[in-house]
Structures are given as C-alpha cells and as structure tokens.
Amino acid sequence: MLTRQRKQLLLKILDEEGQIVAKTLSESLGLSEDTIRRDLRELAKEGLLQRVHGGALPASPAQANFAVRETISTDAKPAIARAAAALIEPGQVVFIDGGTTSVQLARALPRDLRATVVTHSPSVAVELVEHPHVEVIIVGGRLFKHSIVACGAQALEAIAGIRCDVFFMGVCSLDPEAGITTGDYDEACMKRAISATAQRTIVLASPEKLGTAAPFAIAPLATIDGIVVSGKTDAALLAPYREMGIEVTLA
C-alpha cells in the first residue's frame, strides 16, 4: 500500500470510528506499528488529526480564528449559553472565559440578574456594558488575538487574587482520555490558573469540540465539575463523562 493510500485510509477510519489506536490498527491492517505512528505524525503536522498517546483523535475545528469559530455550531452555542446562564445564582462572582460560546453566555444573562462577572475577554466585557445589574471586572494583559483574551504574567497575577464561585471555561477540545485541551500553551496556562482558584469549573462544549484533541493540555477531566452540551448530543458520547461523576447539563 502506497503512503498516500495509507494516509487516506487512516483519515477514513478516524472519520468513521472517531479515534485511531495504533497497535490495534497495525494488527488489523498487517502493517508495522512504527509505520502507522509515522503516518499519524505526518498527518498531525498537516493539521488533519491530533496525535495522542497510543494513536490519534480528530483535530478540533475550534483551533480556527475567532471569526471562523463564530460560524460554527451557530444553533448549539446560544442554547448552551442559555443553559449555562441558568446555572448562575444571584450574588455570585462568575468568571467567564473568552471564546464565541462565552460571548453568547454574556448575552444570555437575565436582565434582572445581580452578580459580578470577571473576564479577561474584551468581547465578553463589551456584551455586558448595558446590563443594568452586573458589575464587570476586566483582567488585563497581553492580547492573545486568536481568542481575543488577555494573557501573560500580569493576567496570571490578577487571577491569583480572585476567588470566583464558578468558572465557565471555553475549550478547543474535550475527550474522556485526552482530557481538556487547547491550541495555545499560554492560553492553557491561563485556563488552568482560573480553574484552580474557582469553587466550580463548568466547561462549555459545543458539538464540534467533543471527542477531539488539541496540542496543549489544560487539565484532566477529574478537575472539572460539569459540562454544558447540546441537547442533541448522542448519549453514548456523554456516558464516559457521567461515569466520571461529571454533571452533564443538556441545552
């Protein structure tokens, strides 16, 4: 089998099965595991999949820039945002992450909600300018243009002094084995730091993010309290999260 044919076959299997286990696939195809792993490495360099321990997962489309991500899951994201907003209690200090679903969450906050929102996302802050009862605290730093959020040492220092009740985390990818991952090292550090100071961490996961992986680990799934997903998500896809004791909210 030619190299190009092998790679096309690997992508076909990944699309159909949602993952590749290198050892199992090498046995079924009669190819060496080294050959499979080499092909996976090359496909990962092309951005066609994400290498994980023992094989590969689909690459997350959420690694695209902000403008492109706004065109993905346009029906699911507002629904997820409304379900997340319903989890907020009056008087809480809430940290809202950056990202397109997070912007939808800011828009979905009830007009009579009295709370404090902390964010390092200018996009989220602007959405709350006209909200009559929400106090907004903006964390500053170097602007990471991909996600339109502040990051860096100044932002981390500010986060260390905030103890929020709940952190709504936006992610590139979520997978039972790969955990929570994103496409930028500094952004992963920021999300991990916010989560560490929050009483609860809830992940906002639009459909394209489930069962995918990105290069940089944020945290294992054991560190989060809940996920909010589309109500149309396959129950089998959500079963591993529920088995881990993670609260799953359907939007």
Automatic annotation (TrEMBL):
GO terms for molecular function: DNA binding; DNA-binding transcription factor activity. Residues 3-58 form the HTH deoR-type domain. PROSITE patterns: HTH_DEOR_1 (PS00894), HTH_DEOR_2 (PS51000). Gene3D superfamilies: 3.40.50.1360, Winged helix-like DNA-binding domain superfamily/Winged helix DNA-binding domain. Pfam families: DeoRC (PF00455), HTH_DeoR (PF08220). Keywords: DNA-binding, Repressor, Transcription, Transcription regulation. InterPro entries: Carb_Metab_HTH_regulators, DeoR-like_C, DeoR_HTH, NagB/RpiA_transferase-like, Tscrpt_reg_HTH_DeoR_CS, WH-like_DNA-bd_sf, WH_DNA-bd_sf. It comes from the Bacteria. This is DeoR family transcriptional regulator. It comes from Pseudoduganella plicata.
